[in-house]
Amino acid sequence: MVKPCWRPCIEDDTMGRLDGLVWHKDLGSHAYGEFSMAVIQANRMCEDYSQLESGPLSSFISGDHPQGTFAGVYDGHAGSEASKFVSHNLFFNLKNIVSERREVSESVLKKAFSTTEEDFLSLVKKQWMNNPQIASVGTCCLAGVLHDGVLFVANAGDSRAVLGRVERGSKRASAVQLSNEHNVNIASVREELYALHPDDSQVVIMKHKCWRVRGLIQVSRSIGDVYLKRAEFQREPLLPKFRLAETFEKPILNSEPEVTVHKLQPEDHFVIFASDGLWEQLSNQEAVDIVHNFPRNGIAKRLLKAALHEAAKKREMRYADLKKIDPGVRRHFHDDITLIIVFIDSHLVSKSPLPPYSIKGGVFPR
């Protein structure tokens, strides 16, 4: 009964367009405005997934139920299984929990993350003997929910949400970061891990000129990465490079997101949800300036292109030459980049939303 409610609208580019290694949805409508999405593949196989859902935020299809817009960016690592799983399950779990509690809240978002984590753990247990590498796959997870004049942002990992705000009487947009990264190259994140694991002097070590959790991974929070959360998977047939010299008694990584709650103001014009690949190339303000100063149609692809120009410049090469590099090799120049720009039209926030809309980002041959 729910599936027809969430069938995507029929239009020429409902599913977005794939141009070589770039997937993009130039412009679409959501409950409170418009949106634009784009993805660039850098790895041999794109490890990112993303989605935008607009309409009912609960599983009920009748009666008084919360409405709004959900945006999710899932930056996978060591494979795409976890990010793909989250794209199929996180929003589904969120709707079920909203249905039970009849509210959208910080605790609801955290429960949706923990339920998705538990579901993925169950999948790992089922596939362990035939597909042991799934225990080493994980994903950063950034989700935003617009509902009833409030923006909830939940983040586990090093993706980032940035608000573009235009003060009354000003022509310039200012950038407001709405999420914190959980990357151990940030001193405060290392301190958090040291505090959680006081008896583990090797919980964070320097390797290949950057800090890594147990010398393996840079993020301290994720969905998946079961091999660093459940000691039972620290054995064969897991590949040796993921097996630790010393076991652990409690999870090293965790999946709990940090949630920020922001009451929307008329000055809040848009939010950029993006994986760390974008922020490695552009500052918050540079990204916000691009979105603010150019037309909405195709703006996500334009922002993506600006990041790629910066990546090429850092390697003292031309953008045209970067475009010719094959995926896999291309990862040495930039990461997979996934971004969703959600525009907030304040005059629509208090009105009835548009018909339900659903789109998944990054449709690449796999």
From TrEMBL:
Enzyme Commission number, as recorded: 3.1.3.16
Domain of life the protein comes from: Eukaryota
Cofactor(s) this protein cannot do without: Mg(2+); Mn(2+)
Organism in which the protein naturally occurs: Linum tenue
PANTHER family: PROTEIN PHOSPHATASE
Cellular component per GO, a single term: membrane
Enzyme class, spelled out: hydrolase
Name assigned to this protein: protein-serine/threonine phosphatase
Domain PPM-type phosphatase: residue ranges: 31-344
InterPro entries documented for this protein: PP2C, PP2C_BS, PPM-type-like_dom_sf, PPM-type_phosphatase-like_dom
Catalytic activity annotation: O-phospho-L-seryl-[protein] + H2O = L-seryl-[protein] + phosphate; O-phospho-L-threonyl-[protein] + H2O = L-threonyl-[protein] + phosphate
TM stretches of this protein: none
SUPFAM superfamilies: PP2C-like
Family, per entry: Belongs to the PP2C family.
